[in-house]
Amino acid sequence: MSGVRRLLADRMVLGLLALAALLFGMPALKPLFAAAFPALDRPLYEADGFLALTLDHLALVGASTLAAVLLGGAAGIAVTRPFGAEFRGILAAVAAMGQTFPPVAVLAVLVPVLGFGPAPALIALTLYGLLPIVENTVAGLDSVPEPVREAARGLGMGPGGMLWRVELPLAAPVILAGVRTAAIVNLGTAAIASTVGAKTLGLPIIVGLNGSNPAYVIQGAVIVAALAVVLDAGFDRLAALFSRWRPGAA
Amino acid sequence: MIAFDGVTKRFGAWTAVDEVSFTVQAGEFRVLIGPSGSGKSTLLKMVNRLIAPDVGTVRVEGEDIARLKPEALRRRMGYVIQDVGLFPHWTVERNIATVPDLLGWPKARVRDRVTELLTLLSLDAERYRGAYPHQLSGGQRQRVGVARALAAEPRILLMDEPFSALDPITRGALQAEMAAIHKAMGTTVVFVTHDMDEALALASRIAVLDRGRLVQTGTPLDILTRPAGATVRDLVGREDWGLKRLAVETVAERLRAGEAAPLGESLGDSLGEPVPAGASLRRALAEMVARGADRLPVVDGQGRPAGVIHLADLLRTPDRA
C-alpha cells in the first residue's frame, strides 16, 4: 500500500516539476523548436506569457467545474429527496443533452447573445461538466445502504442532518469521481474557448492551427497535458482523503 | 409505558397490523413474536414513528406520540435493527456517540459514556473506540449497535430482530448480555423476533402476532402451557414442546432443598460439578443426559449447596393444555 502511495506522490511531484519547467523554461526551448521546425520564422509563441494563459485557463476550468458541482450537486440531491423524485428522469435527460450538445455549438449559439469573451465559454463548459456530476451524485446517494438510512432516522436525525452527516459523506467518493471526470474533460475542452476570445492555453493552439505553426500547437498542448497529470494526481489524493473509512484504506 | 390502542396499518390492499391493542408496562422485556408478515416489525416501528398508524393511537409514557416531534421522540428511545446500520464512515466511538451528540452532551461526558458502554458490551474500549465498522466482526458490530442504542440512557429500547443474523454462539452470548443489561438498568425493552427459543429466554411477557392480529399475550409460561390456537401451538413447537417448557423454569423452582448431595460412590465420578439454581430445567436435563446421571447437586448464587434436583422432578406435571 505504501509503495502505491509513494508512486502516486511521485506522479504529483513529477507533474508539478514538468509543469514548472514548461511554464518558466519554455523560452529556453526556443532553439529546440527552431531546430525541429526550421521553416518557421517564429518557433516560439510569445504573444502572451504561458503562465498568464495557464492561470486564465485554470480559472475558466475551476469556475465552470464549480458551477457544475453546485448546479449538478443540488439537482442530484433534489431528485433523491421525496419531493423531487418525479423529476429524476427529466434531470437525467437534461444532463445527458448537456453533454451530447457539442460545446462548440453552444458557443456558436451563445456568442451572438453574450458577445465574445469568457462568459459563453463558462456556460458551455458548465453544461458540458454537468452530466458526470449529476449522474455520480445520484448514484452516490443511491448507494447509501438502507439499514444505514433506517438507523439514522431511528436514532432521531432529521432529513437535513442525515443528508449532511451521513448521506453526503458516504456518497462523497462517488461524487468526487464525477467531479474529477468533469474537471479533466473541461481542462481539455477549455482550449476551444479561445475561438471566442477567452484567453486560455487554447490560444497558441488555435493561432498555430490557423497559421500553420505546429510549434505553437505543441507548446499549448504539452502544458495542458502537464496540467491534466497534476489535476488527476490531485484528485487521487482527495479521493484517498474521502475514502479513509473504507475497507482497504490505510 | 407504551400503549397501543386499536392500531391498524394498511399497505395498499395488505393489512399489516389489524386493530391491535395492548400495553407494555415499564421495565418489561416484551417480545413481539410471529411468522413473517405477522406485523411485528410494523408494530415496533410505530413506537418511534418510523411508521404511522392509519387508525388508532400509540401512547408513550402517557403522551400520544402523533403529537410529538418524531426526531425528539426517537432520541428518547434506543433503536437496534437486524442489519445493525452502523455509519461506515464513523469510528466506533462516534457511532456510539450519535444520539448524545444530537442531544448536545458535553464532549467529556460523551467520551466517558462510550467507555462505559464498550465495557458493558464486553469490548475493550481502548482497542475498539477508534476502529471503523468494517474492521469488526458481525457480533462486535451488533454489540456496538446495542451500545449506540443505549448511549443516551433511553428508558425504552426497541430491537428489531437484532440477533437473527448472528451465528448461534454469538447470538447466545448477546442474548445473555441483553438479559443482564435489562436486569441491571430496568430499561423497558420491546424486542421483535421469530425465534421462540429466543423469546422464551428473554421475555418477561410475550405478544404473539399472526397476519396483523394479536392472537395472545402472556408470560412465557402462559404461552407454552395455554397456547391460544394453532398458530401459537406451531410457534411453541409440537415436537420439542417439552424442551421449551423446561427452558422457562429454573432449577430453583423444583429442586429438593436441603437434600444432601450424594457423594458419588455408587454414581461414580460423573456426578461431579453442581448446577446453579438459576439455570433452566432444560440445562439440568442436558447435564443429566451428558453425565448419565438421574440427579444433580445444586448450588445457590453464592456457590453454597442448595439441594439436589432429580430427573423425576423434571417430569412432574405435564401441564400442556
TrEMBL record, chain A:
<feature type="transmembrane region" description="Helical">
    <location>
        <begin position="170"/>
        <end position="196"/>
    </location>
</feature>
<dbReference type="InterPro" id="IPR000515">
    <property type="entry name" value="MetI-like"/>
</dbReference>
<keyword id="KW-0812">Transmembrane</keyword>
<keyword id="KW-1133">Transmembrane helix</keyword>
<protein>
    <submittedName>
        <fullName>ABC transporter permease</fullName>
    </submittedName>
</protein>
<feature type="transmembrane region" description="Helical">
    <location>
        <begin position="58"/>
        <end position="78"/>
    </location>
</feature>
<dbReference type="Pfam" id="PF00528">
    <property type="entry name" value="BPD_transp_1"/>
</dbReference>
<feature type="domain" description="ABC transmembrane type-1">
    <location>
        <begin position="54"/>
        <end position="235"/>
    </location>
</feature>
<feature type="transmembrane region" description="Helical">
    <location>
        <begin position="216"/>
        <end position="235"/>
    </location>
</feature>
<keyword id="KW-0813">Transport</keyword>
<keyword id="KW-0472">Membrane</keyword>
<dbReference type="InterPro" id="IPR051204">
    <property type="entry name" value="ABC_transp_perm/SBD"/>
</dbReference>
<dbReference type="InterPro" id="IPR035906">
    <property type="entry name" value="MetI-like_sf"/>
</dbReference>
<comment type="similarity">
    <text>Belongs to the binding-protein-dependent transport system permease family.</text>
</comment>
From TrEMBL, chain B:
<keyword id="KW-0129">CBS domain</keyword>
<keyword id="KW-0067">ATP-binding</keyword>
<dbReference type="InterPro" id="IPR017871">
    <property type="entry name" value="ABC_transporter-like_CS"/>
</dbReference>
<feature type="domain" description="ABC transporter">
    <location>
        <begin position="2"/>
        <end position="236"/>
    </location>
</feature>
<protein>
    <submittedName>
        <fullName>ABC transporter ATP-binding protein</fullName>
    </submittedName>
</protein>
<dbReference type="GO" id="GO:0005524">
    <property type="term" value="F:ATP binding"/>
</dbReference>
<keyword id="KW-0547">Nucleotide-binding</keyword>
<feature type="domain" description="CBS">
    <location>
        <begin position="268"/>
        <end position="321"/>
    </location>
</feature>
<dbReference type="InterPro" id="IPR046342">
    <property type="entry name" value="CBS_dom_sf"/>
</dbReference>
<comment type="similarity">
    <text>Belongs to the ABC transporter superfamily.</text>
</comment>
<dbReference type="Pfam" id="PF00571">
    <property type="entry name" value="CBS"/>
</dbReference>
<dbReference type="InterPro" id="IPR003439">
    <property type="entry name" value="ABC_transporter-like_ATP-bd"/>
</dbReference>
<keyword id="KW-0813">Transport</keyword>
<dbReference type="Pfam" id="PF00005">
    <property type="entry name" value="ABC_tran"/>
</dbReference>
<dbReference type="InterPro" id="IPR000644">
    <property type="entry name" value="CBS_dom"/>
</dbReference>
<dbReference type="InterPro" id="IPR027417">
    <property type="entry name" value="P-loop_NTPase"/>
</dbReference>
<dbReference type="InterPro" id="IPR003593">
    <property type="entry name" value="AAA+_ATPase"/>
</dbReference>
